[in-house]
Design goal:
globular, 21 strands, binds 6-deoxy-beta-L-fructofuranose, single chain, binds adenosine-5'-diphosphate, six-stranded mixed sheet
């Protein structure tokens, strides 16, 4: 059979890319059409994403691809939790706000005082975290007039599907990150929103991942993408990353490692109990009825912000440089809790790390290498704590960890993860998210049979590297130290 190409648009918090994925019946090959930077900046007093700039890149690169070859379908995945608002005429009200804005911290406290933590979790199965979309919507409803002209709320990937096809619906995996959607039942948590006094008339219909929602419309549909279908994939990038993860076997954990580290296990159904709530584990919707039980770990964001700060101070360093400097440092000198609220907002991250260490009585990392080493060790220890917490609630100890995304290229972090957890760590593919996005489209087109078939093709198409654990008692002591810090930070919240 002739090879078929689908377009996967994958937008992460740090960068976006448009990828052509070609399946010849055996191999799934990716061809990056183009990459572009992403980031949020303050506009009208709130951190916002540059939606129109991103759409400009997407439109241009899809056009380039469509002029080069025939594209069967296109689908978009992006970071989770954020939404945009459409007016009745379909125009975008304003640029979507970003989950890192300090308003979210205030709004979470407001939500907890209105309904309590337990009600938030019980209605959604979703980790109570400042970044959740429900807190932005609560702030919009109670403290702005932003909702006055709004007709429809769409999660960010679906803002792109709306531009591409006219669709006014949101996709299940994206909705499940909002903090106002019950993953287990696949319905909006309208009772919770009523209790929070947040309007529900903006919430759209929800479609399943893999839904063909029509042809590409507009200039692209009349031009280079004539005949191309819009197939809504797993719109949440983490859902797509896990679809594209070739697990090491039964009992395998995933870490989708980019701006965030999303670590967890794929299950057939949600697990929302007092124990999962206490462990702050979230249930996110996946492909074909799967659920990811996971924890959001602050991830490489901390390193991204360090790198930007050092650049502002005149030192431009690549990620390869940073990892090299950290490799030369002794391990486990200072440990931080990456999930402390200190590290959520953009800013001078090296200073915040030093202040955190000083406050908790740990040695203060002074050099670039020492700071990076501290971040990498702390992430590895957080992965260990997360693996332990997952095993405690599922009753199933992990057998291996599969790391995907840009962070899977960080060999020091992968080895530290193996050493901290005592598990083999499989790294790759780097572009698991684009592969997962494309894979869901190829299943919808009938080119691949199902999730298992896709993962078999992904495993056969790429090169994976494995790091074996090395025994070292130093990690046990440091793991206990991280637990102390986690408890202290939780109490301070
Ligand atoms: P997102 O989708 O959130 O934008 P990516 O999956 O693209 O993120 O991952 C970006 C991260 O990958 C960077 O912040 C960096 O920490 C890491 N990374 C990228 N390239 C390298 C590299 N050559 N070596 C080590 N880490 C890298
Ligand atoms: C990763 C991610 C994560 C969300 C966060 C906002 O890109 O989608 O799963 O929780 O961004």
């Amino acid at each position: 059979p002739a090879a078929r190409t689908v377009a996967a648009v994958d937008l992460g918090a740090e960068s976006g890319r448009v990828v052509a994925a070609t399946f010849d019946g055996h191999r799934l090959d990716l061809d990056v059409v183009g990459r572009f930077p992403n980031g949020a900046r303050p506009v009208d007093g709130v951190l916002r994403w540059e939606f129109e700039r991103l759409w400009g890149h997407v439109e241009e690169q899809l056009g380039t691809l469509g002029r080069d070859r025939s594209v069967a379908s296109v689908g978009v995945d992006t970071w989770g939790v954020d939404y945009g608002l459409l007016r009745a005429d379909g125009s975008l009200l304003d640029e979507p706000t970003c989950y890192r804005d300090p308003r979210q911290v205030r709004a979470m406290a407001e939500a907890i005082s209105l309904v309590g933590r337990e009600a938030l979790y019980a209605a959604t199965g979703c980790q109570t975290m400042e970044i959740n979309g429900v807190f932005a919507l609560l702030d919009d409803a109670h403290h702005t007039d932003r909702l006055a002209d709004a007709a429809t709320l769409l999660m960010v990937p679906d803002l792109f599907h709306h531009r591409l096809s006219g669709l006014r619906a949101t996709e299940h995996t994206a909705a499940s990150t909002s903090g106002m959607y019950d993953t287990a039942s696949g319905t909006w948590a309208t009772g919770l929103l009523d209790a929070l006094q947040v309007p529900t008339h903006l919430l759209p219909e929800v479609v399943a991942p893999g839904t063909d929602v029509g042809p590409v419309v507009g200039a692209l549909g009349e031009g280079p993408l004539a005949g191309t279908r819009v197939v809504v994939p797993t719109g949440h990038d983490t859902a797509a990353a896990v679809v594209g993860t070739p697990f090491g076997g039964p009992g395998g954990l995933f870490i989708s490692s980019g701006t965030w580290s999303l670590m967890g296990v794929e299950r057939d159904e949600a697990l929302a109990t007092p124990a999962t709530a206490a462990a702050n584990l979230t249930n996110e919707g996946g492909y074909a009825g799967t659920v990811r039980l996971l924890r959001n770990v602050m991830g490489l964001w901390i390193l991204q912000e360090c790198r930007r700060q050092w650049a502002r101070e005149g030192t431009d360093l690549s990620y390869t440089d940073l990892v090299e400097l950290a490799t030369a440092e002794p391990p486990l000198r200072s440990v931080v809790n990456p999930n402390a609220t200190d590290f959520l907002a953009p800013g001078d991250m090296p200073s915040r790390l030093r202040a955190y260490c000083a406050r908790h009585g740990d040695p203060v990392p002074e050099t670039v290498g020492a700071v990076v080493r501290c971040v990498i060790d702390s992430l590895a220890l957080t992965y260990r704590a997360t693996a332990e917490d997952l095993a405690a609630v599922t009753g199933e100890p992990a057998t291996s960890i599969s790391v995907t995304g840009g962070g899977s290229q960080n060999a020091l972090l992968a080895q530290a993860t193996a050493d901290a957890t005592g598990l083999p760590v499989h790294c790759g593919p780097v572009e698991a998210t684009a592969l997962g996005n494309a894979g869901v489209q190829l299943i919808a087109l009938g080119e691949l049979a199902d999730l298992a078939d896709l993962r078999r093709v992904v495993a056969a198409s790429g090169r994976l590297r494995t790091h074996q654990p090395r025994a070292s008692p130093a990690w046990d002591a440091a793991a206990a130290r991280l637990r102390q810090l986690m408890t202290a930070d939780d109490q301070a919240r």
